[in-house]
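Hi C.,

You asked whether I'd gotten around to modeling the 315-residue construct. I have! Everything is below, sequence then structure, no commentary in between.
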Amino acid sequence: MGTTEKPQLPPQRQAEAPAIPASAAQSRAASDRQFAHEVGVGIKSGVAAVVTDALSERRPYLKMAFANPFNLSLLSGGLAAALLTANPILALGAIGLEALWLLHAPDSRLMRRLLWDPRFERVRKALEARDRARRLAGLPDDERGRVEALARRQEEIQRLAAENPSFAGDLLQGELVKTDRLVDAFVEMALTCARYESYLRAIDPGGLERERKRYEQAVRDAGDDATQSGIAKRNLAVVAKRIDKVQEIRRYLAVARGQLDLIENSFQLIADQIVTMRSPQELSGQLDELLNGVETVRETSREAESFLASLDKSL
């Protein structure tokens, strides 16, 4: 019998790492880019939420502790290092430190006083200034100058009030919020006045009065002609309503312009007096009086808008 040869096994070689197909590498790179994009979007949306909350005075300290450049750079740097080195322990460490930071930093009074509150105030003022500039873009230069001067006067009042040792911080903050409302009301009334004045510039009051007299004469001349008389009466009614609209706008402008002047003069007076005030209540009385006047003007504006809208529907 012939000898049976055993099949020769190939020599064992050291295990080699499987080669990653080019398509898989591209897919992983695309996944990494998508992950980075999602992180970036999340960071931007977090910052946007903080800005919105800061503008509405909600003071989201937790969001601010997270969405600030130092924290985001440290967190993203730690996660990026963990991703590049494929080290999950490094990633867990970065997340753990972030959790500790978010647990303690937002409730720290020291951090609020030194970091969060000043930053909230800067963000709020910057957003208010940007929004105000956008709203005032259509105003004449002199009117924009009045608003900007009032805003500077408001900042002066807030600075002088903060320097007055007789004012307690919490009470003072509650009163100074009223100055923000007054500046907003000033802008609102200035815009309404500009809109109404633009309308009045396009109207010829003398021409309206001549039209009214002409149609009154046409009604008389029509006599028994029902068709001619009816058309003349309808035209007369339209012209009369337009005259009423002009008069209503002029009444509003007289009240609003007076209130604008009163706010300007009162801010100047408050800036002169605030150094010697002994309590926030002295400031509160003057601001409340101005706010009551503003509400009266707003009520007049609402009545005027309602009246003008009813005229527009009937014309």
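If it helps when you're writing up: Confidence is low (pLDDT under 50) at residues 1-20, 35-57.

Thanks,
B.
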